[in-house]
Automatic annotation (TrEMBL):
Keyword entries, A-Z: Auxin signaling pathway, Membrane, Transmembrane, Transmembrane helix, Transport
Entry annotated with the keyword Transmembrane helix: yes
Name the UniProt record assigns to this protein: Protein PIN-LIKES 7-like
Any matching Pfam family: Mem_trans
UniProt GO BP: auxin-activated signaling pathway; endoplasmic reticulum to cytosol auxin transport
Membrane topology label: Multi-pass membrane protein
Keyword Acyltransferase part of the UniProt annotation: no
Domain of life assignment: Eukaryota
An annotated GO cellular component: endoplasmic reticulum membrane
Membrane-spanning intervals of the chain: 6-26, 46-64, 70-94, 106-127, 147-168, 333-355, 367-388, 400-424
Amino acid sequence: MGFFSLLVVASMPVLQFLLIGSLGAFLASGDSQIFSASARRDINKIVFAVFTPSLIFASLAKTVTLQELISWWFMPFNIAITFFIGATLGWIVVKILRPPSHLEGLIVANCSAGNLGNLLLMIIPTLCTEDGSPFANQSTCSARGLSYVSMSMALGGIFIWTHTYGLMKRDCITYERLKNEELAKTITEENENASLEDQLGNYKESGEASNSKDVWVPPLAKSADESQEQAIMEPLLSSGKLRRNESFCKKVLETVHLLVKELLEPPTIAVMTGFIVGAIPWLKSLIIGRTAPLRVIQDSLAMLGDGTLPSTTLILGGNLTAGLKKSAVKPSVILAIVLVRYVALPISGIAIVKAANALGLLPQDPLFSYVLLTQFSIPSAVSIGVMAQLFGVGQEESSVIFLWIYLVAALALTVWSTVFMYILT
């Protein structure tokens, strides 16, 4: 198949994403307040707790077998490599451009953490249904693709809520420290000015008293300002000591807590349940198939899962409207993140996946290799914006970065998707 034909096929999922995302942006704009921020949050909760787990379970239980699970062992390593390369390049960007210290983690996170779930959920099924797709000649393309994406989503979530969460938490600590230092400096300057004024006042009063008669003046108690300064500075100093003395065991326990929390989230539970049902033949026969006694469960979950893609894309389009606000992020920082995500990472991905395929580490399925390659070329994870809102640092900067990253994604994903299919065919 020619390169131009593959380009047309690759552009269809991106065009669908742009159309539905643009509708979400319009509904969330000032002209139409149908899709407000609170409405997006409520729908996002339903997507997270109901639609996405239903889609994941329905696809995994139908297509996964124990042998296939064993053959997918390279995917965790592939995702770990994307995070490692992206984080390394992000660290280099931070050292060269020297952004504000409370935004360093945000920049590294955008370079390392990709949208390993929601965006792939739209790209893979659409690509399978296109007539000119190199994967469309197999009847199980869409179901297998959703299984790969479900695995990618589960693994990506673990990496994001440990590595990326740690980066954003560090930004929050830095931001709070800078605010505290600025507050302490302001209080010190105000008290110095106040003490000078008090000294001048006391000097005048003592001069007047000496002219009249000697008066004994008792020592003054601490002023209210000094007491207030001490009350503010003590918790700041003590918090700094606590942070310095934070034990290694506490950090380990916190990491384990985050992993357990991630494993108990609805999408992850759906992944594990889908794997179990798919890998055990007698369980699979109870739910999957036209003669299965509990087939109504699979049909109901598949129906709920159909709402995942349009809902997710509408929410993403609506959230990108927040990036129209002004922020302190420099254009050079945005350009650097774009180059890392859409130039350096995809080139690295081609070398890694081709080497793994040549060594016989991958299953003989071009769609699996395509998913691995696409993991290197997707835009930043939406969860980064959620964390920025959670910690209250870099929210406006995150929105601006997201806006440009996802606008460029329309072109970058089309080009790299075409290149990947050309390589694989």
